[in-house]
Amino acid sequence: MRKLDRKIRDAFESATPDVFTTVLSDCGKEKQTVTDLKETTHIRWKEFIAIAAMVVLLFGVGYGSAALLGSGTIPGPSVFPTESVGSTLLPTHGQIFHPTELEVRDRALAAFDISLEDVYELHIQYEDPHLICVTMNTPTHRYTYRMLVTGETPNLNIEEYKDPDANYIPISKKTAINLALSDAGISREMLTSLDTEFHEKSGLYSDYEIWFTASSLTYHYYVSERGTIYFKSSDCTAPDGERLDQQAINAALKYNDLTKDQIQDLTWSLDHDENKNYYYTIQFYHSFYAFECRVNAFDISDILYNHSSPVNTGWIPATYPLSAFDVARIDANVDISELVYLEIDAEGSEQNYSVVFKTNDYVYIYDIRHGTGKILNKSVTANISEHFQTDGCLTLMDAIELIRGAEGINANQISNLDVRRSAGYCSVSFGKNLTYHVDISNGTILKVSSLTLPTGILNQWGAVNLALKQAGLSIEQISGLDCANADIGYMTVRFYADGHAYEILVNCASGGSVVSMTKTPATNIGPGYIEPLDDAVDRNIREHYISLFRKCGDSSHTADDVSLRFYGAYDDAYAMFIDDNRAYAQPMETDVIAGLSFVYGSTQHLRIYHEGYFYSISAAYALDILKYDELVNLYLYYRSQHPYYYTN
Amino acid sequence: MAAQLTNHELDRLITGTAAGDTYAFEQLYYATSTAVYSYALSLLKNSYDAEDVLHDCFLRIHDAAAEYRPKEKAMAWILTITRNLCYKHLNSRIRQQELTDWQPDTTIEMPADDRIVLEACMAKLADDERQIVVLHAVAGFKHRQIAAFMDLPLSTVLSKYRRTIRKLRSYL
Questions:
Q1: How far is CA A307 from CA A268, A281, A343, in A?
Q2: Band (A30; pLDDT cuts 50, 70, 90)
């Protein structure tokens, strides 16, 4: 299955166009919110006030005076243009004008009392037409400033929000230190010095500046009151740029001649002995061995302890999905005898097994780590699909073990596993297109095939034949045939004949046998009769038929030259012969579809009309327009109409 | 397409995109564009519209990255955006009565084998079958993720997927 998945992925990948360059350029066009401050012309706020006052005076003297003289109000914008987001804000429609981005930027800089030279990145966004958000990055801080502008001239009102999200709970100094230590991967006991300073900001949020030294390295952190580490100095990392604990892991791997790609389930912790000697304990798995390595936290090159041992409990060999299932099943506390469905797939990631199993009441889904048997995810939902009888029959696991024993299949030869119950048998697939069928009543392995039913198990058509034989009728004599799964291993065949309704229960296992038959006076009719085709649909189909010839240049025929011989509607598919004046003689032909023979004595073969297209029976079946049951019904009806084709 | 990244790695790239990191955005694009395009194609059945959606989708991702909350559901988030854009396209096409069946785009240069597989997926599969296969094979969704994404019972997804694979095998 995965090979085909890969083919599909490759096909779509080949078809995918590369539009990244266009996307990137369009991102720039639409947003234009990043301002390179080095290249922008600095316009002073006072100049803006002067310009704004002039505009106000020009377009509304009375209003403008009031705006300028109003206590505490800031003269400037009147109404924000809703259609322009992030554009340079110049007068657009008569008296409507807007502050420029430069003006907004200067207000934000002034609010935090930072200089333009300290800012290396600046974004201006309109969160709604009246709310402007400015974010600025400096090497040590990220500032957010919001400006709300409401009202119109002369009652213009501008509100500033330096910290729009002020309801957070500030972290304590101790927490800030712990966050920094955790980020550095060291503990307090390893510290040789520690110093902190609290910076109260007038702007967005305050922060802690933290210095400490450990293992001959100096660390320098800024941790905000919100617990975000937004700056750490280059001194806190080793020359190769790695954290202390990562260096310890690398040292442990190097000591064992391994790389990160070769190991699984890596864990590490900082521990110490009774003398406060700190070390990193690093554990991981490789192949069938578990490793534990301790690295001196004060000297990464010092490996204090290294040990590897074959794994026993908890370890699942990489090619043994049944062990993964055992882990899941034991966790779910499900007895093997309760199972009605099991699927184990190594899909998605080679690292995990996806284990799906069902009882009559629940569906369990587990993700199990391929290498260690660790449960990564699990879920349990109600099973709303059909229920199966489980008492007195082979369990799914019995079937698996039975086949493994009979066929000599080792556990490590199994890639994917798919086990399910069906009518009278249990099908087991180990991947590689092999499917085994086990008769659940007696444990017989019936057939090795991925495509056909096992020998001895009746399919629908077999059940119908048996039922007809029991009733002493032939297919031509009946109508309204229906054959459906009943209890496990059984099918119910229903049909009408001689004004009576028949219901026959057939045991499909072990060659098939009739369990019971009832015969009651019928109240309706069977497939010997079909509802006539609606006139409008009839016309529509004929028009479609003719239109296909028109595309080829034939304009002489019309829908009136065509007639349909209707063979029934199957959901929204219509079966028919199509007659027109171009018919010509042709030898008798037989189409065999799904084992059913459609014998034709003329040029015309049955066609299926479905959503504006004509299909052959085989195409309609292959495309699932006709389901198997419907195909059988069509076949039975066709055969009843042409018994002379089937004299042999 | 780059090797399939984990949702955690995609989260990191989206966060980087939100912070204005163009390289992160580029990595995100090349890691997910095939899934986006394939899913759009599976819904719209038109390569030009799918390309439009691919373009628009990454514009949306770029704009909305700051609003994304990393929960290791990055691919679902991206494909939800894709689906919404596709529905918008479909609505527009319905209004303009431009709904058409799949027409292969012969201008795209691709290996013959790939073209056959693509044609089989596009022309032979029902819409929901095609979506399930694309979500599984291209986007890397597990069956239960597909069930959640498409709001279908898991058993339906499992059976449809198997049936679709069987159907494709018969064509290929």
A1: 15, 11, 37
A2: very low
- Is A16 in contact with B113 (Cβ distance < 8 A)? no
By CA distance, what is A31's nearest residue in B?
A: B63
Say yes or no: A16 contacts chain B, CB-CB below 8 A. yes
Cα–Cα distances (Å) from A517 to A384, A505, A569, B85, B131, in that order, read 30, 6, 29, 57, 45
CB contact burial A318-352 (16+ within 10 A = b; e otherwise): eebbbbbbbbbbeebebeeebbbbbbbbbbbbeeb
What residue in A sits closest to B38 (Cα-Cα)? A12
**Judging by DSSP bridges, how do beta strands A352-358 and A264-272 pair with one another?**
unpaired
Q: In whole angstroms, give the CA distance from residue B75 to residue B5.
A: 10
A383 to chain B, closest Cα gap in Å: 9
Q: For residue A460, count CB atoms less than 10 angstroms from its CB and return exposed for 0-12, middle for 13-18, buried for 19 or more.
A: buried
B169 inside 8 A of chain A by CB? yes
Which residue's entry shows tokens 């935090």? A112
Report whether A265 contacts A371 (CB < 8 A).
yes
**Nearest neighbour of B26 by CB, restricted to A20, A123, A356:** A20
Give me the residue from B58, B105, B137 closest to A9, CB to CB. Answer: B137
Please tell me if residue A6 touches chain B, with a CB cutoff of 8 Å.
yes
Asked if residue A293 lies in contact with residue A306, where contact means CB atoms within 8 angstroms, the answer is yes
- Residue A255 one-letter amino acid: Y
In 3D space, the residue among A614, A366, A636, A393 whose CA is nearest the CA of residue A528 turns out to be: A636
More confident residue, A304 or B99: A304
Residue matched to tokens 């073969």: A605
Q: What share of chain B is helix, strand, coil (3-state, %, to 5)?
A: 75, 0, 25
pLDDT digits (tens, 9 = 90+) for B65-108: 887 777 667 888 888 888 888 888 887 776 665 556 666 676 77
| Probe site for chain A from B28, B47, B71, B118 (most A CB atoms < 10 A) | B118
Interatomic CA distance for residues B91 and B84, integer angstroms: 11
pLDDT band at A583 (very low <50, low <70, confident <90, very high): very low
User: A-chain residues within 8 Å CB-CB of B55?
Assistant: 19, 22-23, 26
Task: Pick B170's closest partner by Cβ from A343, A365, A622.
Answer: A622
Residue A445 has pLDDT above 60, yes or no: yes
Q: What is the pLDDT of residues B4-51, one digit of tens each?
A: 677 778 888 888 888 888 888 988 999 999 999 999 988 888 888 889
Closest CB from A18, A31, A623 relative to B124: A623
Query: Does B136 contact A5 at a Cβ distance shorter than 8 Å?
Result: yes
B122 and A CB contact within 8 Å: no
The shortest CB-CB distance from B108 to any of A9, A15, A34 is to A15
Q: With both helix axes pointing from N to C terminus, report the angle between B143-150 and B74-95 in degrees, rounded to the nearest 10.
A: 40
Give the mean pLDDT of A229-253. 70
Specify burial of residue A21 (Cβ count, 10 A radius: 0-12, 13-18, 19+): exposed
Cα–Cα dist A486/B53, whole Å: 48
